[in-house]
Amino acid sequence: MGELIAENGIRLDGRKLDELRPVKIEVGVIKNADGSAYIEFGNNKIVAAVYGPREAHPKHLSLPDKAFIRCRYHMSPFSTEERKPPQPTRREIEISLVLRRAMECAVFLEEYPRSIIDVYVEVLQSDGGSRCASITAVSAALADSGIAMHDLVVGCAVGKADDQIILDLSDKEDKEGQGDIPVAYMPNLDRITLLQFDGIFTEEEFKKAIELAIIGNKKVYEILRNALTEKYFKLGEEK
Amino acid sequence: MSLKKSPIVENLRKTQMLDLMSKQKRVDGRAFNEYRPITIKLNPIQKANGSAEVSIGNTKVIAGVKIATGTPFPDTPDQGLLVVNAEFLPLSSPLIEPGPPDEDSIEVSRVVDRGIRESQMLDLNALVIETGKLVNCVFVDVDILNMDGNLFDVAFIAAALSLATAKFDKKIVKEDGTEETQKVSLPLRLIPVSVTSITIGDNIILDPTAEEDSVLDSRMTITFDEQGHICAGQKGGSVGLPVEQLFKIVSISKAKAEEILLMIKKVVENA
Amino acid sequence: MTVVRSKVLPGDLIGDVPPGPLPFNTYRVGNKLYSLKVGLAEVEDKEVKFIPLSGPYIPRVDDFVIGTVVDLNAFTWDVDINSLYMAHLPAQDVFGRNFSSVSNSLTEQFSVGDMMIAKIVTYDRTRDPLLTIREPGLGKVLRGEPVKLSSSKIPRLIGKKGSMAKIIESKTKTKLFIGQNGIIIVQGPPDGIVLAIRAIRLIEEKSHVASLTNMINELLSKEGV
What we know:
By secondary structure, chain B is α+β, with helices and mostly antiparallel strands. Chain B has helices at 11-22, 103-118, 151-164, 210-213, 243-269, and strands at 2-3, 38-42, 50-56, 59-70, 81-88, 96-97, 128-130, 134-146, 167-173, 179-185, 193-200, 203-206, 218-224, 230-236. Chain C has 3 domains: 3-52, CATH 2.40.50.100; 64-140, CATH 2.40.50.140; 145-223, Ribosomal Protein S8, Chain: A, domain 1, CATH 3.30.1370.
């Protein structure tokens, strides 16, 4: 074993190889938004809000037969170790794109032709795996807004450190490990909607990593279900 | 990020507001000089040197402080840097679209910056590490998370609180000559307060909601220091402000500032 | 006849696909029916009912809606009906066929910020909804307090054959103008308006609870005017 994982398979933050960081989700936190959610994933603190579907401005953005999703992933200047200037960086623009694609797989776009769905993500504190945590928050916000979706989407990364496949990389493991695979997943349809990978993996390792990612995603899914149930079904019981 | 068009507040609603106002009442039952409930959460962002989440009514913001080292400005070699920035996040309102900051967003940013700077809240000279070469740079960034009027005051309180409770590592040379890293606060001289009001005819109304903003004649934001001195201010709105009314506003705002200052100091003490 | 009720999230299985058209807000894969939204599903024998708990208002022809004028040009008013599309009221609807933009001024009838009760005349997926105010009971809203409620909860506010709305009106001495699009105008004495709005807020919070009718009755009996 090396520096990130000890002899007994315990990681620097005390977790086992297949253990998630603590996750907390709260639905409906931005009053003005049509739907919103706040997530804490390890030390990540992220807020997501949805406005729409609504009229597209400018009109030429709209598509005649389905909705258009516009996504903005942004990190607050105080969210990282070194202050990050407020202007969007290329990394944020790319993450906005993969997030959008991840949600397009699930949202029933044909239900809302000629309209636009605005998805906003603000990372208030960042700690490795923020894009996966963002996807879960966005899903919660979309469900909160009542936009039709074929399935919820959750996110959880896997990676490799000290030659071990590990679940849900921390910031340090992300920076100093051997590989990083963020995965977004639709649990009922059993489909992957976001997948990026870097690092060197054998085919065996890659397969093992994806399988572990799905297990991790299913755990995140349960937490997301509880959060939505908490907001929508908790107040009073059905007979 | 820009408010492309002012919110359409229904004429019925405007009539109702003006009607109530003539009876010295507001739609939400508040008195003219009453603020909505103020909630404060300190240190929500542990990675930042200091942070505060502040709500006044439904307007909610998070401010974060990051402290770094850098070179001072050439014309102030003996002062640290202080930069205050406020962002209208598109998630805070249906009227904002993504893009570079527009004039409203920049105005809030600069008014809050001036309030903190001109009140001399921080002793910038005490942020020097090596004159002319190395100083501490203090960045305050305010995220507006939900908009419902009075962005100036909420952003201001959050910025001031996050500065007042910020901690950073400073190398101290001890008596025996050895160096030690200690967690210290920023060199705080005082805590300033800003009070925002609008005028509607003869009425002076503090802490306006977004709805009330839609019927304003004029708006004033005034920053006070702990002695009640006026440090900075800005007039908004497109209607001329009668001079007598301005003096009334100053006096009402000053009284309110004292109240708010007491509350903020209690929060800082209990931190 | 067993009724199976379930609380579902997007992607959850509701049951077998029922005969006839699919209920709104559901989709099928093979012969299984799934939910598209957070909501309550009721399966009785082969019948499926689905009630979403949130969601945008999708216009329907013949719906009564309440909207606010946000813009106007020489020939139409643009009316915000709190939906994903802007609605339009053609000047001809108000002035008649002999409408002329030179002699008839639109702002005299409705200016920006005015509210109206209207009916949707045409709507399809390729065009914005068109409104009319030509029927009795439609037109400019001159007084009252506008209240917003999620359009998916309007049926609960109306109740079976209008029963819920009627109870609220009688116990608060108010008149409720209810738009299918989730905008309500409450008219009446100030105390009555405040209580009616409380009842509406209670429906918003507890629309998924079976005993809601009892809760509303309790609230109104205790504090009715």
